Amino acid sequence: QVQLVESGGGLVQSGGSLTLSCAAAGFRLDNYPVGWFRQAPGKEREAVSCIAYSPSSVYYADSVKGRFATSRDNPKNTVYLQMSSLQPEDTAVYFCATACDVPRVDKWGQGTQVTVSA
Q1: Which residue, 39, 54, 79, 115, is the most exposed by fewest CB within 10 angstroms?
Q2: 103: helix, strand or coil
Q3: Which of 116, 114, 94, 113 minimizes the C-alpha distance to 34?
């Protein structure tokens, strides 16, 4: 009943764009900051971005700054991650979560695979 669902992952060529969605069911996302994380095979989990619940201040990892953008659509109870200028090193499973620091997360999405081909 209470869950986060990511969608929008897939295969894209280098230099391409993709937008991920994080939709909440059973609770209001606008009561939480929302973090995006990613994990690639053989690499540790990496924080990608954060959007605060009020106001919607945003923060980005240096590795994605200038290429990724996160935003909210509160009436849709959804947070987005727009990714552009994608490179193979962006290939990972992407997760959204109800916090920007892992110890504070109480809800995780199931993850969505993003694969960027050279």
Answers
A1: 54
A2: helix
A3: 94
